[in-house]
């Protein structure tokens, strides 16, 4: 009985830690841009091998869509090139947003990027004239992109707002693994430019 209690307490602590980390990453390097009139949301793609949108890209599109502020003029940019298939990640995500999720807003496809650094670099001219910038992905990956944006265009940092990328309980069984991967990835990002 006592052993079961320890396992339960340990598992609960791990899940609580991963939720906390996910929430924290969602808020780092973001500003309050509540007075913004226009916003742009950059949805970052994930390797898509075939001609159908994969699970991760569907999740990222949904993050982007739930981040739209109906009171603002919003542009949605789907960013990601073709890694293995004929169709780019951007095409697959844009099609999913418009035809499956029913998004009727403005969409631009950025289909050249093959890395997070390129997602940011290739979107700079598209986002620089907006009052509010959101980056949609899972929280650790979105933070990585915000770090890259700050390195490439520090003048835009004050316009970066939080996307609605953290939801309590979302992907809960995988959150501890995502947290460990996020820690590893963000550590590598910090080491790149020390």
Low-confidence stretches are none
Question: What value does the average pLDDT take?
Answer: 92
Estimate nothing, just give the exact number of structural domains: 1
The shape, in one word, is globular
Ends apart, CA distance between termini: 49 Å
- What name is given to the CATH topology? Rossmann fold
The CATH H-level superfamily is HUPs
Q: For the report, how would you describe the main beta sheet? A: 4 strands, parallel
The amount of helix comes to: 40-55%
Salient structural properties:
194 residues; alpha/beta; Rossmann fold; four-stranded parallel β-sheet; 6 helices; 48% helix; globular
Describe this structure in words.
This protein is α/β, with parallel strands linked by helices and 194 residues long. It has one domain: Rossmann fold, CATH 3.40.50. The protein has six helices and four strands. It has a four-stranded parallel β-sheet, sandwiched between helices. β1, α2 and β2 form a beta-alpha-beta unit. α4 packs across α5 and α5 runs parallel beside α6. It is globular. The mean pLDDT is 92.
In short:
The chain has 194 residues and is α/β, with parallel strands linked by helices. The protein has one domain: Rossmann fold, CATH 3.40.50.620. Helix content is 48%, strand content 12%.
Layout of strands and helices, then pairs:
Blueprint: H1 2-27, E1 38-44, H2 55-66, E2 73-79, H3 89-100, E3 106-110, H4 116-127, E4 132-136, H5 139-152, H6 175-192
Parallel strand pairs: 1-2, 1-4, 2-3
């Amino acid at each position: 009985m006592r052993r079961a209690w320890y396992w339960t307490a340990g598992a609960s602590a791990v899940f609580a830690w991963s939720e906390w980390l996910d929430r924290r990453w969602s808020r780092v390097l973001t500003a309050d841009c509540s007075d913004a009139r226009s916003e742009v949301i950059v949805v970052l793609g994930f390797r898509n091998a075939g001609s159908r949108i994969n699970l991760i890209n569907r999740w990222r599109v949904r993050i982007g869509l739930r981040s739209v502020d109906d009171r603002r003029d919003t542009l949605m940019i789907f960013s990601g090139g073709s890694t293995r298939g004929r169709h780019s990640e951007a095409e697959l995500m844009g099609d999913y947003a418009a035809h499956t999720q029913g998004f009727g807003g403005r969409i631009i496809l950025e289909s050249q990027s093959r890395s997070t650094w390129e997602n940011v670099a290739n979107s700079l001219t598209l986002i620089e004239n907006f009052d509010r910038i959101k980056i949609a992905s899972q929280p650790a990956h979105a933070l990585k992109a915000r770090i890259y944006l700050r390195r490439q265009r520090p003048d835009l940092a004050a316009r970066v707002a939080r996307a609605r990328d953290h939801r309590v309980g979302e992907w809960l069984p995988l959150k501890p693994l995502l947290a460990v991967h996020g820690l590893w990835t963000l550590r590598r990002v910090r080491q790149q430019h020390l």
